[in-house]
Write a structure and sequence with these properties.
This protein is mainly alpha-helical. 78% of the residues lie in helices and 0% in strands.
Length: 79
């Protein structure tokens, strides 16, 4: 049953993409300058990269603080 729902969703997405590809650019852009759309997309991409980097850094810091909080093993004594 879940497979049928997934297939229907994929068919829907495929139809939407095909329709967008078929529509002329000026109709899709609705009188917006393509360079403006590109610049905004690049700005959003850069902001997403910065945010992802901050999230990764915070996760790494949390992992390091967890590891450094572990008790360290005592050195073995050789006789």
């Amino acid at each position: 049953m879940m497979t049928k729902a997934i297939n229907e969703f994929e068919n829907f997405i495929d139809a939407v993409v095909d329709e967008l590809i078929a529509i002329p650019d000026d109709q899709v852009l609705n009188d917006v300058v393509p360079a403006t759309v590109q610049a905004e997309g690049l700005r959003r991409l850069q902001a997403a990269k910065v945010q992802a980097g901050q999230v990764r850094l915070a996760a790494a810091k949390a992992a390091v603080s967890t590891v450094s909080a572990w008790p360290r093993p005592l050195p073995s004594i050789q006789t």
